[in-house]
């Protein structure tokens, strides 16, 4: 059948182009703060990796054995016992691999709503039908999942249970247990996307869904704790499924960059990533606090927002019939940006919502950006 | 619909595992010679790229602008006028992007037979039906393509017109013109996979199909002239299709490693890739000659083989009802390996065929490997 795929480009990535003027203070992209990258440590790791000629050669699809062992040990130490992972070209690739392996032509995918829009794109591209599961201030609502499973029989549930994108919300341990039970009872695959879990600024860790459910495919990434430019993620799944995913990855790109993988293994061996993450937590926590503190004077009365314990995002809803996409145009005239919320919805968008990232800008820039935003919103 | 994808792993990649014992002289994998990698030049390029903090950040899906300009200029200089390319995570990814963008649920893909098996895998994974087009010692036979197009109405033709994998054959300019004419008359997309084109050891270049057909998607790669570990390829296509492929890539992995791309741009800026390729040509040409010269004393009378002008592979056919998969087991007992030909066929395999790569081993190793192989084959 002749076709040319029709899928829209990501509004966030298109927006990033608009906000790249240096005078814009952008709260739009989910970008790590570049000044906090450990550039010297990373450069030294590449230099070390590139002492070995074999890093320029083809490599196993599964990934660099040292890196797999290091990542598995790190996950195990954090409370998720892990014997092996598949290294992916960022965790975005992991999503596509899972969709290719598990979603047939008439597949149904349940997603918390709102959700990460590049996941929506990825599932839409396979032709899957997307069904939304309600979320509240504690994240996905298990009772809603139960009705969706009964009515729609989805093949897969996708969620970001910890510091969600776009809401910043975290699913409680009892809700996780209930989701694990629903997954087991209905042979439902659960994709637990966890790029932000280590970026906790207060409270204590909630065990990952994968630690209580063997129906869970757990996705991790260096992008938020290391450097997104290296495009390194990993995927933990039951052994049978992992083998299938390796074959799917073989067709997707043979393997992830041998150089980047070896550099990451060298970095993890010779540097203290935990100390680096601790530094990120301190800095990002201060930025989170600065943004939340500025909100009452920035947004109109009646606006609500999430109060995230970690991650990168605050999710807001303006009162009445506000349209955040219209307001964004005005905001750009004032050299400040955010992401309108509509594109994070699988079905009926709430146009009064929007997402703000607090990690990319310094506390000072956040202050200035919020002052600009107040002129638009109030 | 519940499913778990069932696609076989690549026999070549599985075989590479068997042949990784250091005592084995392997003619199996299509691996560049590691001792010819410009390790120092590449390490210096990474070090230079990593002076700039922005190489650790997210980046545009299209690819690093400098690298796109450098690759486009290089293609233009080589006789293929190119205004832009999409940078891909190796050209294997380009195949998957093209399949996702162009192949609907009942798609039909025509391939020269035999052909590159990871391309077969990739098209099979989309659920496409594969139809073979006959090839002879000059590559794909246009008359066969004409009948296949009339009977099967394929959406896409995949071929490696220059120094093909697995045969080493090169399609003549008149045959290319005929294929371009068939593609234009039938709205057929043509994927011209050209990883080996620069590795010519004799004769003169044949213009790429893409230079005479605007129905052509041209795939190039650093893997054979630079380093496969960097996983860098590029894709040249008509502007409309290129835009669609960018969106598909966004879902596939957001973008290719910012670090690897910046290092490649630095390498191309500060090194003479043409001089490096010239060195590869000299070395690989000598290896080709050594393998071809040894063949008469290695294979049984009645064996036929291709006589490639470039690339990495010789394709052989044993006389009678020989089964090269059975002979491989015996060969491994003598610490030498090749790839049985069956898996390069989309439909009916010819079990008497096999592929030998002449690039990975030195002339001395080729001599020793061929002597071991003679014990098995003669």
From TrEMBL, chains A, B:
Q: Which UniProt keywords apply?
A: Aminotransferase, Pyridoxal phosphate, Transferase
Chain ranges of the Aminotransferase class I/classII large domain: 43-370
Q: Which GO terms describe its biological process?
A: alpha-amino acid metabolic process
Q: Which GO terms describe its molecular function?
A: pyridoxal phosphate binding; transaminase activity
Query: Is Magnesium a UniProt keyword of this protein?
Result: no
Q: Which cofactor does it need?
A: pyridoxal 5'-phosphate
Q: Which CDD domains match?
A: AAT_like
In terms of superkingdom, the source organism counts as Bacteria
The similarity comment for this entry is: Belongs to the class-I pyridoxal-phosphate-dependent aminotransferase family.
PANTHER family in alphabetical order: AMINOTRANSFERASE, KYNURENINE_ALPHA-AMINOADIPATE AMINOTRANSFERASE, MITOCHONDRIAL
On subunit structure and binding partners, the annotation says: Homodimer.
Name it: 2-aminoadipate transaminase
């Amino acid at each position: 059948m002749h076709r040319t795929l029709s899928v829209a480009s990501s509004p966030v990535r298109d927006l990033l182009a608009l906000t790249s003027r240096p005078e814009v203070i952008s709260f739009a992209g989910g970008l790590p703060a570049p000044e906090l990258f450990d550039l010297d440590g990373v450069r030294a790791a590449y230099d070390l990796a590139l002492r070995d000629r074999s890093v320029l050669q083809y490599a196993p699809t599964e990934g660099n054995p040292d890196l797999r062992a290091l990542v598995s040990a790190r996950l195990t130490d954090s409370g998720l016992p892990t014997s092996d992972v598949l290294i992916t070209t960022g965790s975005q690739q992991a999503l596509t691999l899972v969709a290719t392996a598990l979603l047939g032509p008439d597949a149904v995918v349940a997603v918390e709503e709102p959700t990460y829009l590049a996941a929506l794109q990825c599932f839409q591209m396979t032709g899957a039908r997307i069904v939304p599961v309600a979320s509240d201030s504690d994240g996905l609502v298990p009772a809603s999942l139960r009705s969706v499973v009964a009515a729609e029989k989805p093949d897969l549930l996708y969620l970001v249970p910890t510091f969600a994108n776009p809401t910043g919300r975290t699913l409680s341990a009892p809700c996780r247990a209930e989701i694990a039970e629903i997954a087991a009872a209905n042979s439902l695959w659960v994709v637990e996307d966890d790029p932000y879990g280590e970026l906790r600024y207060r409270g204590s860790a909630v065990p990952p869904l994968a630690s209580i459910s063997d129906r869970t495919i757990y996705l991790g990434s260096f992008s938020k704790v290391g450097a997104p430019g290296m495009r390194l993620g990993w995927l933990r799944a039951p052994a049978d499924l992992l083998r299938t995913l390796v074959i799917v990855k073989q067709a997707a790109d043979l393997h992830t960059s041998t150089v980047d993988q070896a550099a990451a293994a060298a970095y993890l061996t010779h540097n203290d990533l935990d100390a680096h993450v601790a530094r990120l937590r301190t800095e990002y926590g201060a930025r989170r606090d600065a943004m939340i503190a500025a909100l009452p004077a920035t947004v109109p009365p009646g606006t609500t927002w999430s109060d995230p314990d970690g991650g990168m995002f605050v999710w807001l809803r303006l009162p009445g019939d506000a349209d955040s996409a219209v307001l964004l145009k005005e905001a750009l005239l004032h050299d400040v940006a955010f992401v309108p919320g509509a594109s994070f919805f699988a079905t009926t968008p709430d146009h009064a919502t929007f997402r703000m990232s607090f990690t990319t800008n310094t506390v000072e820039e956040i202050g200035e950006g919020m002052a600009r935003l107040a002129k638009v919103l109030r």
